[in-house]
Amino acid sequence: MEAKTVLITGAAKRIGRGIALRLHQAGYRVAIHYGNSEKEARATAEECGSAPLFQANLESVNDIRRMFSEVGPIYGLVNNAARFRRRDPLEVTEADWDFIHSVNLKATFFCCQQAALLMKKSGEGRIVNISSLGGIRPWEMYAHYCASKAGVIMLTRALAKAFAPEVTVNSVAPGVILSSGQEPRIKEMIAATPARRSGTVEEVADAVLYFLNATNFVTGQVLAVDGGLSQR
Is residue 145 annotated as a catalytic residue, yes or no? Predict the structure, then answer.
């Protein structure tokens, strides 16, 4: 049978790259989205068997629509692209807010929308949104980021109902991933993690793979890959 296609946003580097490699290894045909990191995206694509590349500015809904029209029929979408920035809430500007939410939440919604339109035509699909421990637990200097990721979690639950039964929508919420723990805040988080370590990209990718492989009886769920930190 022909391999099922999964589009991964922000797949050029870091967690997105790790997810792409893991899905390719598992037999999926991955499609690589990137924004500005073309060199890194091409390298990831080569490691994934010359996977197709799709450039899009996720701040633009028109660009998102164009990208999905170019990708064509897909089985899976992994909304990985995100922005992260520390700001004192008393100093957050409108530009700071929009910088985070335009990609973390708005783009996630419209990518889900466009993917679901394609998936419903084919009769099945799997969407996995990468949220964050910051969407489950509050971080005082990342209020705008936490709000965006909490939004992703609620969006996941709402769309799981809206897109059923053909399309499932689930979320993976990573904790501290691949950190050397040099920053005081990160060191504190790792020390508070029951697993007593940071996680790996591969562990996040395995969680994504689980949701892609699961039946439609698993939907609207949030899987924290955080070593138990969200339970503290």
Answer: yes
